[in-house]
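Page 37, top half.
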Amino acid sequence: MEFVKEFVTFLHQKEIIKFGDFTLASGKSSSYYVDLRLVPSYPHEFRMMVKYLENQITEDIGLENFESIVSVPTGGLVIASALAIETVKPLIYVRSKPKDYGTSKSVEGKIHESMRVVMIDDVATTGGSVVNAIKSLTEVNVPVKDAYVIVDRMEGATEALKELGVKMHSILNILQITEILYEQKLINVEILDKVKKQISK
């Protein structure tokens, strides 16, 4: 739990999480924005985050119980690459759309039927990009049972993945983040309430 508090404080200090009015990729408006693509610019914290993720996966499912790590560009792929190096596991990734030259495939890397994989992404909102990736993997007979994200925005991703038979695990969710920041008097009650309201929508 100590890491979680320190990490949340770090996210706030470095403005990796910002509060205000933002428009998300989906077009939805949000009272906060999480940009985990900034984390690799801080190698010490980045490594701690990847190590924490590795420990979490080891505890939950065991490193011996899957063959490869799979991710989606770009945010998740940076984290997955570092995790693949730490765990000495093969890495595959799923393009958002197949490339229109060469082999024109959407899944990159060495795959075989029924291989066991773990999906990694950075932030989950509705789960759209991961859902699409899981569908692409299913088409090539690579089933996904578990997906890990660093931050769950709690806006439907867990439910969307559950419908596909995938369990979503997160290191942090937005409620935890805002409650930790509020306890440390780094944000006010108004911000906390705005985030709670957004989740309950």
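Page 37, bottom half:
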Amino acid sequence: MAVTIRDVAQAAGVHISTVSRAFSGSHLVKAETRERVLAAAAELGYRPNQTARALTTGRTQNIGLIVADIANPFFPPLIKSAQSRARLCSYQVFVADTDEDPRAEEELLRTLARQVDGLVLVSPRLANEEIAALGGEVPLVLVNRRVPGLCAVLMDVAHGAALAVEHLAGLGHRRLLLAGGPRNSWTSAEMRRAAEAAAAGRGLEMTLFAPNSPTEQGGIAAARAVVEARATAVIAYNDLVAVGLIEGLDALGVAVPEEVSVVGIDDTVVGRLNRPRLTTVAMPTAAAGRAAVDLLIQAVEAKDADQATAETTLGTSLVVRDSTAPAPRPEPAADAPPAA
């Protein structure tokens, strides 16, 4: 027999109305209760009647998800988790890619806004003022961007960048380079702020190479800057930049990690498969996708401004692998006396 809403309510130990509110994303349902209801529904194979619900609510049951570069391995886990979460709540997801182009981003936002109940915008490149204006046209949740008046899911990249500096300082590195990301990148700005503060606190020298393409080619381009700055360690904007940087340094005859240590950001499959395996800051991308969908559905249902401008911050951690090592010892001067 078909699974009903009553079956889900009984399995989750809640009232039928609570199940209905959980699927609509209502802010009246506590997060832990919603998790229990969705888990029970998934186990029983329950799906709400989407057609009847759309007629009742006047909504499309569609949401848009716009990412900066779908080819970047940072984004697929986020997209997958967002789709899975939306499906449990009886929503479908339209995914679009801006190819790191702010104008394409604006065009997609305006186009999708007419076809969906709300939008998730991941790592946007538009200026804050432009995003805020578009946020007045449709419920909007940002991932890795903070704009006053809009919902946001933030990954604590500042904490991760500080951990990276502390790790490198502990290995004896004193001259660092930060290979930043593109203009209008919240992540790049947060990295710079936190890394420079941590380096200053340790008395380290830090060189900035930015703005820069968030790609493997961007990393290759940064390699010469590392050599010219005589840096012994680099913190890269993301894993793609870090992998490109290792490739670029190798082409210049610089060994990683023996001569230069490299730290990435993201903890993607690219870094895990690279040789040397990449030391990196793990970003909670899958959790961010789920949280963004939850916030968006809540924003669509919100009756008060506080719910419509909620913000969630997710933690980050450092994963130490093979691309970092103790700083190389400086070569003795030609006229230096031999060691005793």
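Margin note: The two ends are 86 Å apart (CA to CA).
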